[in-house]
Q: What sequence folds into this?
């Protein structure tokens, strides 16, 4: 058995042929997935990648991956741009939840779930935010209480992407109320179809129903559902959030396909200016240039941060730098598109010279890019405290037992 790693150039050439022979052309962007049929199609494509030997490029071999390097993944991603890929599995299943299981899962959890994920048999989602929680994730009140040899889960989570189509969710719950808020948490792997779990879809201003709210009513879980250590769930959550910021920021090695980072990926500003006859307008040309420059800087920043983290020159928390910049870029891209489109961004009608319908909905959704993966304010805190070494922000509830912390209703 050879232990030599296939050279990236040879891997890329092999991937190019396989993609050409096995995957259909990339369809037009349909926006966030809103039906189980779209998820089923993604599972089908993922299964195709797995059977073809191109799934889980950076995942360990023993759990169904290829055990290759980020350079191999990057090469495959570039070759896959022209083809239909299961992009909706990237976040949160592959790059966040499965990556967290690689780091913290038990051997049984890895054997059971990672291969299933890479085969397209299982979808994983994260169950973190709560209806009244805001950005204070550690202040959550969903509880898991010991009952003999079981845990009984009660509470609610919200803003969970794609939970309606998922098989399991990584759920952070409070298991000890007598210690400070960060120390009494535990991460559980919860079957979405378990008795007592109810999933409701949320309709957003864009019309999308991708996000969900989940309710847990006496959901029974065994010890085999615990991810990491009991009462040490903040470590598990921190690892999950690290993977989430890497995915949103574009530095995750587990993202596969044409969207290595989220938000503002497809800038239609140039085409928009051409179709509306504004390409010779100096002001519009300056806007196009500024938008393009921001994207180039973002891509170069991602490359620099990724290399520096892998080389140990920057801490893993530096992924928050790209997460923050990606959000800023997404805002600028959507704002510029609306600026060029003018009133047409809100009044699109069939037959107009440019299709501005997506520009309008992108603008309505742009605030989400400052919240996905933790708020940009939290990213700034991470950068200041964990990258730059600045003093921690004051917190009145630090070192106070959670059952003594004053909370709103």
A:
């Amino acid at each position: 058995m050879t232990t030599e790693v296939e050279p990236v150039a040879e891997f890329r050439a092999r991937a190019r042929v396989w993609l050409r022979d096995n995957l259909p052309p990339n369809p037009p962007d349909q926006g966030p997935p809103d039906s189980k049929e779209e998820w089923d199609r993604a599972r089908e494509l993922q299964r195709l990648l797995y059977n073809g030997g191109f799934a889980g490029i950076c995942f360990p071999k023993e759990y169904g991956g290829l055990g290759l390097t980020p350079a191999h993944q990057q090469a495959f991603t570039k070759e896959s741009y022209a083809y239909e890929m299961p992009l909706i599995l990237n976040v949160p299943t592959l790059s966040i939840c499965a990556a967290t299981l690689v780091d913290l899962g038990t051997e049984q959890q890895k054997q059971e779930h990672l291969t299933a994920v890479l085969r397209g048999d299982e979808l994983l989602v994260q169950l973190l935010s709560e209806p009244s929680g805001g950005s204070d994730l550690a202040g959550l009140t969903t509880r898991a209480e010991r009952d003999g040899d079981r845990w009984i889960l009660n509470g609610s989570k919200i803003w969970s992407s794609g939970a309606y189509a998922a098989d399991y969710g990584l759920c952070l719950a409070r298991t000890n109320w007598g210690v400070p808020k960060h120390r009494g948490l535990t991460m559980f792997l919860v079957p979405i179809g378990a008795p007592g779990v109810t999933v409701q879809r949320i309709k957003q201003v864009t019309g999308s129903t991708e996000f969900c709210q989940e309710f847990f009513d006496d959901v029974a879980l065994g010890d085999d559902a615990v991810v990491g250590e009991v009462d040490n769930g903040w470590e598990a959550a921190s690892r999950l959030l690290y993977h989430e910021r890497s995915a949103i920021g574009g530095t995750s090695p587990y993202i596969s396909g044409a969207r290595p980072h989220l938000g503002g990926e497809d800038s239609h500003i140039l085409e928009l200016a051409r179709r509306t006859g504004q390409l010779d307008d100096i002001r519009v040309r300056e806007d196009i240039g500024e938008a393009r420059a921001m994207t180039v800087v973002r891509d170069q920043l991602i490359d620099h941060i990724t290399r520096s983290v892998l080389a140990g020159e920057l801490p893993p928390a530096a992924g928050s730098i790209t997460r923050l910049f990606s959000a800023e870029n997404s805002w600028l891209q959507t704002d510029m598109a609306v600026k060029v489109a003018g009133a047409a961004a809100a009044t699109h009608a069939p037959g107009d010279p440019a299709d501005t319908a997506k520009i309008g909905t992108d603008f309505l959704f742009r605030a989400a890019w400052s919240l996905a993966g933790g708020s940009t304010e939290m990213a700034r805190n991470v950068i200041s405290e964990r990258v730059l070494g600045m003093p921690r922000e004051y917190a009145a509830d630090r070192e106070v037992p959670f059952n003594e912390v004053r909370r709103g209703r």
In short: The longest helix spans residues 282-310. The longest strand covers residues 150-161. The two ends are 62 Å apart (CA to CA). Residues 350 and 357 are 10 Å apart (CA to CA).
